[in-house]
Write a structure and sequence with these properties.
126 residues; alpha+beta; 2 helices; 20% helix
Length: 126
């Protein structure tokens, strides 16, 4: 069964905890070419878009759902937005939970809006 608006509100199980490390923050900042001092030192915070690393892990549940028959090879990523409560920091253990927010069908094409919530394993939002 292809995805329809009946799937709106479906959430997938949270990802395994991901430990944000100084090394991963440094790698990400280097890939961006961003030498902001906040991303270095003993207690660095992650660049804001580091959240995409964690959100990408949550996409697995959506694409693994056999009922939806979605395939990454047939997917176009059109838009992405972030909203933060606080920066991700080295030492945070974070889980990501994906929810289908909106589905619009146009002919043989489905436009799907999802959100991914990031929370620490201690229960605070990120």
């Amino acid at each position: 069964m292809p995805i329809t608006d009946a799937h709106v509100g479906r959430s997938y199980p949270a990802t395994q905890p991901y430990r944000v490390s100084r090394e991963k923050i440094a790698e990400f900042a280097a890939a961006l070419g961003d030498d902001n001092p906040a991303y270095a030192g003993d207690a660095p915070q992650a660049p804001p878009t580091f959240a995409a690393v964690l959100a990408a892990q949550a996409w697995g549940g959506l694409f693994a759902d056999p009922e939806l028959d979605l395939q990454l090879a047939r997917t176009i990523h059109a838009d992405q937005r972030f909203a933060w409560t606080r920066p991700l920091c080295a030492g945070d253990e974070v889980i990501a939970t994906l929810t289908i927010d909106k589905v619009r069908a146009r002919a043989n094409t489905a436009f799907i809006t999802v959100s991914v919530a990031l929370d620490t394993t201690a229960g605070s939002p990120s």
